[in-house]
Design goal:
By secondary structure, this protein is of the alpha/beta class. It folds into 3 domains: 2-153, DNAb Helicase, Chain A; 182-249 and 327-502, P-loop containing nucleotide triphosphate hydrolases (Rossmann fold, 3-Layer(aba) Sandwich), CATH 3.40.50; 253-322, no CATH class. The chain has helices at 2-8, 11-23, 25-31, 43-59, 67-74, 80-96, 105-133, 137-153, 163-174, 182-188, 207-220, 234-246, 263-266, 329-338, 358-372, 396-414, 459-464, and strands at residues 196-201, 225-229, 253-262, 315-324, 346-350, 378-382, 417-422, 451-456, 466-474, 484-490, 495-502. Helix 7 runs antiparallel to helix 8 (137-153) and helix 12 (234-246) crosses helix 14.
Length: 503
Protein backbone atom coordinates (compact mmCIF):
# COMPACT_ATOMS: atom_id res chain seq x y z
CA UNK A 1 0.00 0.00 0.00
CA UNK A 2 2.85 2.40 0.73
CA UNK A 3 4.14 2.06 -2.84
CA UNK A 4 0.73 2.84 -4.31
CA UNK A 5 0.43 5.94 -2.15
CA UNK A 6 3.85 7.15 -3.26
CA UNK A 7 2.95 6.64 -6.92
CA UNK A 8 -0.12 8.84 -6.53
CA UNK A 9 1.86 11.77 -5.11
CA UNK A 10 3.06 13.88 -8.04
CA UNK A 11 4.85 10.89 -9.51
CA UNK A 12 4.19 11.94 -13.13
CA UNK A 13 5.72 15.41 -12.90
CA UNK A 14 8.65 14.14 -10.83
CA UNK A 15 9.28 11.43 -13.44
CA UNK A 16 9.37 14.10 -16.16
CA UNK A 17 11.81 16.17 -14.09
CA UNK A 18 14.22 13.29 -13.52
CA UNK A 19 13.93 12.38 -17.21
CA UNK A 20 15.19 15.88 -18.00
CA UNK A 21 17.98 15.48 -15.44
CA UNK A 22 19.05 12.19 -17.05
CA UNK A 23 18.93 13.04 -20.76
CA UNK A 24 19.66 16.77 -21.05
CA UNK A 25 22.75 18.70 -20.00
CA UNK A 26 20.95 21.85 -21.15
CA UNK A 27 18.11 21.16 -18.71
CA UNK A 28 20.58 20.47 -15.91
CA UNK A 29 22.42 23.72 -16.57
CA UNK A 30 19.22 25.78 -16.56
CA UNK A 31 17.68 24.21 -13.45
CA UNK A 32 20.82 23.79 -11.36
CA UNK A 33 20.54 27.03 -9.35
CA UNK A 34 16.93 26.25 -8.37
CA UNK A 35 17.50 22.61 -7.59
CA UNK A 36 16.90 21.16 -4.13
CA UNK A 37 16.26 17.51 -3.31
CA UNK A 38 13.74 18.56 -0.66
CA UNK A 39 11.24 19.33 -3.45
CA UNK A 40 10.88 15.64 -4.36
CA UNK A 41 8.13 13.74 -2.53
CA UNK A 42 8.93 10.32 -3.94
CA UNK A 43 12.02 8.57 -2.59
CA UNK A 44 12.83 6.83 -5.89
CA UNK A 45 12.71 10.04 -7.98
CA UNK A 46 14.73 11.84 -5.31
CA UNK A 47 17.39 9.13 -5.54
CA UNK A 48 17.65 9.44 -9.34
CA UNK A 49 17.78 13.24 -9.08
CA UNK A 50 20.65 12.98 -6.58
CA UNK A 51 22.61 10.72 -8.95
CA UNK A 52 22.06 13.08 -11.90
CA UNK A 53 23.09 16.20 -9.99
CA UNK A 54 26.18 14.52 -8.56
CA UNK A 55 27.19 13.37 -12.03
CA UNK A 56 26.61 16.84 -13.49
CA UNK A 57 28.68 18.51 -10.80
CA UNK A 58 31.66 16.31 -11.73
CA UNK A 59 31.35 16.01 -15.52
CA UNK A 60 29.12 19.00 -16.47
CA UNK A 61 27.02 16.66 -18.55
CA UNK A 62 23.84 14.62 -18.32
CA UNK A 63 24.36 11.02 -17.16
CA UNK A 64 22.17 9.41 -19.84
CA UNK A 65 24.84 7.03 -21.20
CA UNK A 66 25.93 6.06 -17.67
CA UNK A 67 22.72 6.11 -15.63
CA UNK A 68 22.28 2.32 -15.83
CA UNK A 69 25.81 1.84 -14.45
CA UNK A 70 25.06 4.30 -11.63
CA UNK A 71 21.86 2.40 -10.84
CA UNK A 72 23.65 -0.95 -10.82
CA UNK A 73 26.28 0.44 -8.47
CA UNK A 74 23.67 1.76 -5.99
CA UNK A 75 20.95 -0.86 -6.39
CA UNK A 76 21.93 -2.86 -3.31
CA UNK A 77 21.48 0.22 -1.08
CA UNK A 78 17.87 0.79 -2.19
CA UNK A 79 14.59 -0.51 -0.87
CA UNK A 80 13.24 -3.23 -3.11
CA UNK A 81 10.20 -1.23 -4.21
CA UNK A 82 12.34 1.82 -5.03
CA UNK A 83 14.77 -0.31 -7.03
CA UNK A 84 11.88 -1.77 -9.04
CA UNK A 85 10.40 1.67 -9.74
CA UNK A 86 13.78 3.07 -10.80
CA UNK A 87 14.48 0.09 -13.08
CA UNK A 88 11.08 0.51 -14.73
CA UNK A 89 11.56 4.25 -15.24
CA UNK A 90 15.09 3.87 -16.64
CA UNK A 91 13.83 1.27 -19.11
CA UNK A 92 11.08 3.62 -20.24
CA UNK A 93 13.54 6.50 -20.68
CA UNK A 94 16.01 4.39 -22.66
CA UNK A 95 13.20 3.32 -25.01
CA UNK A 96 11.84 6.82 -25.57
CA UNK A 97 14.96 9.00 -25.61
CA UNK A 98 17.91 8.41 -27.91
CA UNK A 99 19.17 11.97 -27.96
CA UNK A 100 18.62 15.24 -26.11
CA UNK A 101 16.40 16.67 -28.85
CA UNK A 102 13.82 13.97 -28.00
CA UNK A 103 13.05 16.08 -24.93
CA UNK A 104 11.21 19.40 -25.11
CA UNK A 105 13.66 20.97 -22.64
CA UNK A 106 12.05 24.39 -22.30
CA UNK A 107 8.58 22.97 -21.66
CA UNK A 108 9.85 20.57 -18.98
CA UNK A 109 11.90 23.43 -17.51
CA UNK A 110 8.76 25.56 -17.17
CA UNK A 111 6.92 22.62 -15.55
CA UNK A 112 9.81 22.06 -13.18
CA UNK A 113 10.00 25.69 -12.10
CA UNK A 114 6.25 25.72 -11.44
CA UNK A 115 6.45 22.47 -9.49
CA UNK A 116 9.40 23.67 -7.41
CA UNK A 117 7.54 26.88 -6.56
CA UNK A 118 4.49 24.86 -5.57
CA UNK A 119 6.60 22.57 -3.39
CA UNK A 120 8.36 25.54 -1.81
CA UNK A 121 4.95 27.02 -0.99
CA UNK A 122 3.82 23.74 0.56
CA UNK A 123 7.00 23.40 2.58
CA UNK A 124 6.97 27.06 3.63
CA UNK A 125 3.32 27.04 4.67
CA UNK A 126 3.79 23.87 6.71
CA UNK A 127 6.89 25.29 8.40
CA UNK A 128 5.09 28.56 9.19
CA UNK A 129 2.14 26.63 10.66
CA UNK A 130 4.45 24.66 12.94
CA UNK A 131 6.50 27.72 13.96
CA UNK A 132 3.44 29.85 14.71
CA UNK A 133 2.00 27.04 16.79
CA UNK A 134 5.19 27.29 18.87
CA UNK A 135 5.00 31.14 18.91
CA UNK A 136 8.24 31.43 16.89
CA UNK A 137 7.08 34.48 14.93
CA UNK A 138 10.50 35.70 13.78
CA UNK A 139 11.41 32.24 12.48
CA UNK A 140 8.10 32.17 10.61
CA UNK A 141 8.90 35.53 9.00
CA UNK A 142 12.27 34.19 7.92
CA UNK A 143 10.46 31.37 6.11
CA UNK A 144 8.54 33.99 4.11
CA UNK A 145 11.76 35.78 3.16
CA UNK A 146 13.30 32.50 2.03
CA UNK A 147 10.30 31.78 -0.19
CA UNK A 148 10.59 35.24 -1.78
CA UNK A 149 14.13 34.37 -2.89
CA UNK A 150 12.89 31.23 -4.67
CA UNK A 151 10.02 33.15 -6.23
CA UNK A 152 12.37 35.83 -7.56
CA UNK A 153 14.69 33.20 -9.05
CA UNK A 154 11.82 31.82 -11.17
CA UNK A 155 10.51 35.14 -12.48
CA UNK A 156 12.36 34.69 -15.76
CA UNK A 157 14.18 38.00 -16.01
CA UNK A 158 17.46 37.75 -17.90
CA UNK A 159 20.52 39.99 -17.63
CA UNK A 160 21.42 40.31 -21.35
CA UNK A 161 25.05 41.35 -20.79
CA UNK A 162 25.85 38.41 -18.54
CA UNK A 163 28.08 35.51 -19.53
CA UNK A 164 25.20 33.09 -18.94
CA UNK A 165 22.86 35.00 -21.28
CA UNK A 166 25.56 35.18 -23.94
CA UNK A 167 26.22 31.44 -23.63
CA UNK A 168 22.52 30.56 -23.88
CA UNK A 169 22.09 32.82 -26.91
CA UNK A 170 25.08 31.29 -28.70
CA UNK A 171 23.90 27.77 -27.93
CA UNK A 172 20.42 28.58 -29.25
CA UNK A 173 21.87 29.99 -32.49
CA UNK A 174 24.13 26.97 -32.87
CA UNK A 175 21.20 24.59 -32.49
CA UNK A 176 19.74 23.48 -35.82
CA UNK A 177 16.18 22.91 -34.63
CA UNK A 178 14.38 21.90 -37.81
CA UNK A 179 15.06 22.20 -41.50
CA UNK A 180 13.94 20.43 -44.64
CA UNK A 181 16.60 18.78 -46.78
CA UNK A 182 17.72 20.27 -50.08
CA UNK A 183 16.73 23.54 -51.69
CA UNK A 184 13.42 23.69 -49.78
CA UNK A 185 15.32 23.77 -46.49
CA UNK A 186 17.72 26.44 -47.75
CA UNK A 187 14.79 28.53 -48.95
CA UNK A 188 12.53 28.51 -45.90
CA UNK A 189 15.51 28.45 -43.49
CA UNK A 190 15.53 26.57 -40.14
CA UNK A 191 12.28 26.71 -38.18
CA UNK A 192 12.58 27.59 -34.49
CA UNK A 193 11.01 26.35 -31.28
CA UNK A 194 7.87 28.18 -30.22
CA UNK A 195 7.10 29.42 -33.73
CA UNK A 196 3.67 29.60 -35.30
CA UNK A 197 3.96 28.69 -38.99
CA UNK A 198 1.09 29.07 -41.46
CA UNK A 199 0.76 27.23 -44.78
CA UNK A 200 -1.45 29.10 -47.24
CA UNK A 201 -2.83 27.68 -50.44
CA UNK A 202 -5.84 27.40 -52.69
CA UNK A 203 -8.22 24.45 -52.41
CA UNK A 204 -6.72 21.03 -53.19
CA UNK A 205 -3.14 22.28 -53.52
CA UNK A 206 -1.65 19.90 -50.97
CA UNK A 207 -1.62 21.98 -47.78
CA UNK A 208 -2.31 18.94 -45.61
CA UNK A 209 0.34 16.91 -47.41
CA UNK A 210 2.92 19.64 -46.79
CA UNK A 211 1.84 20.01 -43.16
CA UNK A 212 2.26 16.26 -42.74
CA UNK A 213 5.71 16.48 -44.36
CA UNK A 214 6.79 18.92 -41.64
CA UNK A 215 5.74 16.28 -39.12
CA UNK A 216 7.39 13.34 -40.89
CA UNK A 217 10.72 15.14 -41.34
CA UNK A 218 10.58 16.28 -37.70
CA UNK A 219 9.90 12.67 -36.63
CA UNK A 220 12.86 11.37 -38.62
CA UNK A 221 15.06 14.06 -37.03
CA UNK A 222 14.16 12.69 -33.61
CA UNK A 223 11.42 15.10 -32.52
CA UNK A 224 8.00 14.31 -31.05
CA UNK A 225 5.00 15.26 -33.19
CA UNK A 226 1.25 15.61 -32.71
CA UNK A 227 -0.95 15.91 -35.81
CA UNK A 228 -4.50 17.13 -35.13
CA UNK A 229 -7.02 17.08 -37.97
CA UNK A 230 -10.48 18.60 -38.19
CA UNK A 231 -10.95 17.22 -41.72
CA UNK A 232 -9.78 13.59 -41.75
CA UNK A 233 -10.53 10.53 -39.68
CA UNK A 234 -7.63 8.94 -37.81
CA UNK A 235 -7.72 6.02 -40.27
CA UNK A 236 -7.21 8.41 -43.19
CA UNK A 237 -4.42 10.20 -41.34
CA UNK A 238 -2.68 6.89 -40.63
CA UNK A 239 -3.14 5.82 -44.26
CA UNK A 240 -1.41 8.98 -45.52
CA UNK A 241 1.51 8.44 -43.17
CA UNK A 242 2.00 4.88 -44.39
CA UNK A 243 1.73 6.06 -48.01
CA UNK A 244 4.49 8.56 -47.34
CA UNK A 245 6.69 5.93 -45.69
CA UNK A 246 6.14 3.18 -48.29
CA UNK A 247 5.86 5.22 -51.53
CA UNK A 248 3.54 2.43 -52.66
CA UNK A 249 0.69 2.82 -55.13
CA UNK A 250 -2.76 1.37 -55.69
CA UNK A 251 -1.16 -1.41 -57.68
CA UNK A 252 2.33 -2.75 -58.34
CA UNK A 253 3.92 -1.32 -61.47
CA UNK A 254 5.54 1.65 -63.15
CA UNK A 255 4.64 5.19 -62.09
CA UNK A 256 5.40 8.51 -63.77
CA UNK A 257 7.69 10.50 -61.47
CA UNK A 258 8.50 14.20 -61.95
CA UNK A 259 12.25 14.89 -62.03
CA UNK A 260 14.42 17.93 -62.60
CA UNK A 261 15.87 18.53 -66.03
CA UNK A 262 17.72 21.35 -67.81
CA UNK A 263 16.10 23.63 -70.38
CA UNK A 264 19.28 23.56 -72.48
CA UNK A 265 18.94 19.79 -72.62
CA UNK A 266 15.28 20.03 -73.62
CA UNK A 267 15.79 22.54 -76.44
CA UNK A 268 19.06 21.00 -77.67
CA UNK A 269 21.13 24.15 -77.09
CA UNK A 270 23.62 22.40 -74.76
CA UNK A 271 26.91 21.39 -76.37
CA UNK A 272 28.78 20.42 -73.19
CA UNK A 273 30.49 17.01 -73.20
CA UNK A 274 28.85 16.22 -69.84
CA UNK A 275 25.37 16.19 -71.40
CA UNK A 276 23.52 12.89 -70.87
CA UNK A 277 22.34 12.60 -74.50
CA UNK A 278 21.87 14.74 -77.64
CA UNK A 279 18.15 14.43 -78.38
CA UNK A 280 15.97 17.51 -77.73
CA UNK A 281 12.36 17.20 -76.58
CA UNK A 282 10.82 20.63 -77.30
CA UNK A 283 9.07 21.27 -80.60
CA UNK A 284 9.72 24.25 -82.89
CA UNK A 285 7.36 26.43 -80.79
CA UNK A 286 9.26 25.53 -77.63
CA UNK A 287 6.43 23.40 -76.23
CA UNK A 288 6.78 20.06 -74.51
CA UNK A 289 5.02 17.01 -75.95
CA UNK A 290 3.00 14.60 -73.88
CA UNK A 291 5.24 12.27 -71.96
CA UNK A 292 6.04 9.01 -73.74
CA UNK A 293 8.07 6.53 -71.72
CA UNK A 294 9.32 4.95 -74.96
CA UNK A 295 10.75 8.20 -76.35
CA UNK A 296 14.60 8.06 -76.36
CA UNK A 297 14.92 11.51 -74.69
CA UNK A 298 16.52 11.41 -71.25
CA UNK A 299 16.84 14.17 -68.66
CA UNK A 300 20.21 15.74 -67.86
CA UNK A 301 21.28 17.38 -64.61
CA UNK A 302 25.04 17.07 -65.06
CA UNK A 303 25.54 20.76 -64.24
CA UNK A 304 22.96 21.03 -61.45
CA UNK A 305 25.09 19.87 -58.51
CA UNK A 306 28.53 20.66 -59.91
CA UNK A 307 29.76 24.02 -58.55
CA UNK A 308 32.01 24.46 -61.61
CA UNK A 309 29.16 23.87 -64.10
CA UNK A 310 26.18 25.22 -62.12
CA UNK A 311 26.05 28.47 -64.14
CA UNK A 312 25.10 26.40 -67.20
CA UNK A 313 22.05 24.83 -65.53
CA UNK A 314 18.61 26.28 -66.19
CA UNK A 315 15.95 24.49 -64.19
CA UNK A 316 13.11 22.65 -65.88
CA UNK A 317 11.29 19.40 -65.20
CA UNK A 318 10.32 16.24 -67.01
CA UNK A 319 9.41 12.67 -66.06
CA UNK A 320 10.89 9.23 -65.56
CA UNK A 321 9.19 5.91 -64.94
CA UNK A 322 9.81 4.13 -61.64
CA UNK A 323 8.71 0.74 -60.33
CA UNK A 324 6.70 0.85 -57.08
CA UNK A 325 5.05 -1.81 -54.95
CA UNK A 326 1.36 -2.12 -54.19
CA UNK A 327 0.12 -0.39 -51.05
CA UNK A 328 -0.86 -3.51 -49.14
CA UNK A 329 -0.50 -5.23 -45.80
CA UNK A 330 3.01 -6.46 -46.58
CA UNK A 331 4.31 -2.95 -47.29
CA UNK A 332 2.57 -1.50 -44.23
CA UNK A 333 4.05 -4.03 -41.82
CA UNK A 334 7.50 -3.51 -43.30
CA UNK A 335 7.20 0.11 -42.20
CA UNK A 336 5.94 -0.93 -38.76
CA UNK A 337 9.01 -3.12 -38.32
CA UNK A 338 11.50 -0.64 -39.82
CA UNK A 339 10.28 2.34 -37.83
CA UNK A 340 9.84 0.62 -34.48
CA UNK A 341 12.08 3.18 -32.75
CA UNK A 342 9.70 6.00 -33.76
CA UNK A 343 6.50 4.40 -32.49
CA UNK A 344 6.38 6.55 -29.34
CA UNK A 345 7.13 9.79 -31.17
CA UNK A 346 4.12 10.56 -33.40
CA UNK A 347 0.51 10.94 -32.29
CA UNK A 348 -2.61 11.71 -34.33
CA UNK A 349 -5.97 13.00 -33.13
CA UNK A 350 -9.14 13.72 -35.10
CA UNK A 351 -12.01 16.06 -34.23
CA UNK A 352 -15.13 16.78 -36.32
CA UNK A 353 -15.12 20.19 -38.01
CA UNK A 354 -15.88 23.13 -35.68
CA UNK A 355 -16.06 20.79 -32.65
CA UNK A 356 -12.79 21.80 -30.95
CA UNK A 357 -10.85 24.99 -30.31
CA UNK A 358 -7.32 25.56 -29.02
CA UNK A 359 -8.57 25.35 -25.43
CA UNK A 360 -9.86 21.84 -26.13
CA UNK A 361 -6.62 20.86 -27.87
CA UNK A 362 -4.57 22.17 -24.95
CA UNK A 363 -6.58 20.03 -22.53
CA UNK A 364 -5.97 16.94 -24.65
CA UNK A 365 -2.25 17.74 -24.89
CA UNK A 366 -2.10 18.12 -21.10
CA UNK A 367 -3.83 14.76 -20.70
CA UNK A 368 -1.34 13.20 -23.13
CA UNK A 369 1.55 14.58 -21.08
CA UNK A 370 0.05 13.31 -17.83
CA UNK A 371 -0.87 9.86 -19.15
CA UNK A 372 2.14 9.08 -21.34
CA UNK A 373 4.70 11.76 -20.55
CA UNK A 374 4.44 12.76 -24.23
CA UNK A 375 5.43 16.41 -24.77
CA UNK A 376 5.57 17.35 -28.47
CA UNK A 377 8.07 19.58 -30.24
CA UNK A 378 5.73 19.92 -33.25
CA UNK A 379 1.95 20.42 -33.13
CA UNK A 380 0.15 20.42 -36.48
CA UNK A 381 -3.43 21.74 -36.50
CA UNK A 382 -5.25 21.14 -39.78
CA UNK A 383 -6.66 23.70 -40.12
CA UNK A 384 -7.26 27.07 -38.44
CA UNK A 385 -10.46 28.14 -40.22
CA UNK A 386 -12.46 25.08 -39.12
CA UNK A 387 -11.59 25.31 -35.43
CA UNK A 388 -14.42 26.11 -33.03
CA UNK A 389 -14.37 29.78 -31.86
CA UNK A 390 -12.29 30.39 -28.74
CA UNK A 391 -15.19 32.37 -27.31
CA UNK A 392 -18.86 31.77 -28.13
CA UNK A 393 -19.53 35.50 -28.45
CA UNK A 394 -16.78 36.19 -31.02
CA UNK A 395 -17.74 36.42 -34.68
CA UNK A 396 -16.20 37.22 -38.05
CA UNK A 397 -12.79 38.85 -38.03
CA UNK A 398 -12.65 38.90 -34.22
CA UNK A 399 -13.24 35.15 -34.14
CA UNK A 400 -10.41 34.43 -36.61
CA UNK A 401 -8.11 36.85 -34.79
CA UNK A 402 -8.65 35.07 -31.47
CA UNK A 403 -8.02 31.69 -33.09
CA UNK A 404 -4.64 32.78 -34.49
CA UNK A 405 -3.73 34.45 -31.19
CA UNK A 406 -4.55 31.19 -29.41
CA UNK A 407 -2.39 29.23 -31.88
CA UNK A 408 0.53 31.61 -31.24
CA UNK A 409 0.03 31.34 -27.48
CA UNK A 410 0.03 27.55 -27.69
CA UNK A 411 3.32 27.59 -29.61
CA UNK A 412 4.96 29.95 -27.12
CA UNK A 413 3.64 28.35 -23.93
CA UNK A 414 4.47 24.80 -25.04
CA UNK A 415 7.82 25.73 -26.60
CA UNK A 416 6.64 23.81 -29.65
CA UNK A 417 6.47 24.67 -33.32
CA UNK A 418 2.82 24.93 -34.35
CA UNK A 419 1.98 24.38 -38.03
CA UNK A 420 -1.46 25.32 -39.33
CA UNK A 421 -2.68 25.41 -42.94
CA UNK A 422 -4.94 28.29 -43.90
CA UNK A 423 -7.16 29.21 -46.85
CA UNK A 424 -6.79 32.02 -49.39
CA UNK A 425 -9.33 34.36 -50.97
CA UNK A 426 -11.40 33.56 -54.05
CA UNK A 427 -9.05 35.72 -56.13
CA UNK A 428 -6.11 33.87 -54.62
CA UNK A 429 -7.36 30.61 -56.11
CA UNK A 430 -6.01 31.65 -59.52
CA UNK A 431 -2.98 33.88 -58.94
CA UNK A 432 0.49 32.73 -59.99
CA UNK A 433 2.15 33.76 -56.71
CA UNK A 434 0.20 34.19 -53.47
CA UNK A 435 0.94 37.33 -51.46
CA UNK A 436 -0.39 38.95 -48.29
CA UNK A 437 -3.44 40.40 -50.03
CA UNK A 438 -4.61 36.89 -50.96
CA UNK A 439 -5.07 35.66 -47.38
CA UNK A 440 -8.66 34.55 -46.74
CA UNK A 441 -11.05 36.29 -44.35
CA UNK A 442 -8.49 38.33 -42.47
CA UNK A 443 -4.98 39.42 -43.41
CA UNK A 444 -4.27 40.27 -39.76
CA UNK A 445 -3.25 36.65 -39.13
CA UNK A 446 0.11 37.75 -40.56
CA UNK A 447 0.69 39.70 -37.35
CA UNK A 448 0.54 36.52 -35.26
CA UNK A 449 2.64 34.07 -37.31
CA UNK A 450 6.41 33.78 -37.20
CA UNK A 451 6.35 32.60 -40.80
CA UNK A 452 3.71 32.04 -43.45
CA UNK A 453 4.56 30.02 -46.53
CA UNK A 454 2.42 29.81 -49.66
CA UNK A 455 1.79 26.84 -51.94
CA UNK A 456 1.55 28.11 -55.52
CA UNK A 457 0.37 25.90 -58.36
CA UNK A 458 -1.37 26.45 -61.67
CA UNK A 459 -3.18 23.83 -63.76
CA UNK A 460 -0.15 22.95 -65.90
CA UNK A 461 2.08 22.64 -62.84
CA UNK A 462 -0.41 20.28 -61.22
CA UNK A 463 -0.15 17.99 -64.27
CA UNK A 464 3.64 18.25 -64.07
CA UNK A 465 3.76 17.32 -60.36
CA UNK A 466 5.09 20.73 -59.34
CA UNK A 467 4.31 23.22 -56.58
CA UNK A 468 6.15 26.47 -55.93
CA UNK A 469 6.65 27.38 -52.27
CA UNK A 470 6.87 31.10 -51.53
CA UNK A 471 7.10 33.27 -48.42
CA UNK A 472 4.19 35.56 -47.53
CA UNK A 473 5.52 36.66 -44.14
CA UNK A 474 8.57 35.99 -41.97
CA UNK A 475 9.40 37.55 -38.62
CA UNK A 476 13.00 36.38 -38.45
CA UNK A 477 14.38 36.35 -42.01
CA UNK A 478 14.57 38.64 -45.03
CA UNK A 479 12.21 37.50 -47.78
CA UNK A 480 10.74 38.53 -51.12
CA UNK A 481 7.15 37.59 -51.86
CA UNK A 482 7.75 36.65 -55.50
CA UNK A 483 10.75 34.37 -54.90
CA UNK A 484 9.85 30.67 -54.84
CA UNK A 485 11.37 27.22 -54.59
CA UNK A 486 10.06 24.49 -56.90
CA UNK A 487 9.09 21.23 -55.20
CA UNK A 488 8.40 17.99 -57.07
CA UNK A 489 5.55 15.77 -55.88
CA UNK A 490 3.88 12.46 -56.61
CA UNK A 491 0.84 12.45 -54.35
CA UNK A 492 -0.53 9.25 -55.87
CA UNK A 493 2.41 7.62 -54.07
CA UNK A 494 2.07 9.89 -51.02
CA UNK A 495 5.24 11.87 -51.79
CA UNK A 496 4.87 15.66 -51.29
CA UNK A 497 8.63 16.40 -51.48
CA UNK A 498 10.58 14.27 -53.92
CA UNK A 499 13.13 16.97 -54.70
CA UNK A 500 13.40 20.74 -54.70
CA UNK A 501 15.22 23.45 -56.61
CA UNK A 502 15.36 27.22 -56.24
CA UNK A 503 13.53 29.19 -58.94
Amino acid sequence: MAVLTRLRVDSTIEQRIVTGLIVSSSFLRKIYDLFDLVYFKNTYTKEIAKWAINYYEVFEDAPFAHIQDIFNKNKSKLKEEDADLIASLLTKISERYEMERNLNVDYVLKETETYFRKRQLEITSENIRILLKSDKVERAEMEIEQFKKVQYATLGFVEPLSEEAAHNMLMAEKEDFFSFPGALGRFIKPIGRGWLVGLAGAFKRGKTWLAQEFGIVALLLGFKVVFISLEMTTDNMVRRIFMRMTAAGKKKGLYKIPVFDCLHNQDGSCDLPDRTQNIPILNDEGAKPEYDEHHPYRVCTACRNDPHLRQNYQMDTWFEMEAHEEFDQEQIYKVVDSFEQFQNSYKVLSYPKFSANIGDINRDLDALAEKEGFIPHFIIVDYAEILKPEEDRSQGIDQIDRTWIALAQMAASRFATVISPTQVTKVGQDVEVLTAKDMARWVGKLAHVDALFAINQNAMEKLAGIVRIGTVAHRHEEFHEYETVTVLQQLELGQPHLDSERG
